[in-house]
Amino acid sequence: MAEQRSHGGGQRNYHDVLAIPAIDGLTPVYFVDLKLRNNAGDVVSRNFYWLPLKKETDYRALCNLPPVKLKASCRVERLGEESVIRTRVENPSDHVAFFVHLVLTRSDDREEVLPVFWDDNYISLAPHETRELTARVAAGAFGKKEPVLEVGGWNIQTEYQCKALKVSQTQLKAKETLTVTAQIADTFLDGSRVTLLVDGQPVDKKWAWARGQSGRRGLVQPETVATRQPSRERRR
Fold first, then answer.
1. Torsional sign, CA 21, 97, 117, 87
2. Domain end point (choices 128, 152, 176)
3. Is the pLDDT of residue 157 over 80?
4. Where are the beta strands (DSSP E) in 123-233?
5. N or C: which end of the chain has fewer CB within 10 A?
6. Domain that holds residue 206
7. What is the pLDDT of residues 161-210, one digit of tens each?
8. Does residue 131 share a domain with residue 185?
């Protein structure tokens, strides 16, 4: 870790103030959560990094992050000509919640409330970490009803609806291929991770985006297709 000092004329000097020791057992992509605290123990600055262990551009391991279900809540305060929305997001799992995206939507049509000014967003949460974030919007920007807080992200489990599910065949033998097609609606604003479960276990996942209302913006109906070869004969 280096300390930066500025001098007259724009000159800057850097001095090493802390050496981070080598860490054994790192995964192919590992995370660094760097926090700076004052004398009272309050966090005054934070940075979150994801770094590859070997090849500089190999981040494929991020695609295999375990899914995380977050807990989130918000409350609204009226301050003059603006509304302040104070949110609380908790990661109750044992895994990193990566690139968490908070969105405020109107409860009547699920459109995003804009413009909105967040004090932070697109954050990452360490296991069992909780963050409180604040958003400011013009008073009345979300109508007469309270806004809805939606939370998504890279490996975040979000709500969606499965309108239809179709399988290519109902009787399988070992090494035969099964194709499952799902019709998805009402995903998170930037899309949801749709997971295919077989006997309660995840076997495949895909991203789907479907927002809007039929007859208004049109109901987007993407298909999620997963193919698997069962290891034993199965009748479903």
1. negative
2. 152
3. yes
4. 123-125, 130-138, 148-152, 161-167, 171-172, 178-185, 192-198, 201-208, 223-228
5. N
6. 161-235
7. 999 988 888 887 887 887 888 899 999 999 999 988 888 888 888 889 99
8. no
3 state SS of 171 = strand
Query: Under a CB-based contact definition with an 8 Å cutoff, are residues 233 and 178 in contact?
Result: no
Q: Are 232 and 173 in contact (CB under 8 A)?
A: no
Q: How far apart are the first and last CA of the chain?
A: 57
Same domain (yes/no): 170, 204: yes
| CB-CB neighbours of 204 under 10 Å | 15
Contacts of 189 (CB under 8 A, 6+ apart): 101, 103, 105, 112, 150, 152, 211
The secondary element (H helix, E strand) that includes residue 13 is: strand 12-16
Question: In total, how many domains does the chain have?
Answer: 3
Length of the chain: 236
User: Tokens in use for 93?
Assistant: 């799992």
User: What are the tokens at 109?
Assistant: 């049509």
Q: Which 3 state secondary structure label does DSSP give 81?
A: coil
- Candidates 156, 176, 153, 180; CA nearest to 168 is 180
What pTM was computed for the model? Answer: 0.80
DSSP tag of 200:
T
Give the chain's largest Cα–Cα span: 78
- Residues paired with residue 201 on neighbouring β-strands, in sequence order: 198
By the 8 A CB rule, do 32 and 5 touch?
no
**Alpha carbons within 13 A on the beta-carbon side of 52:** 9
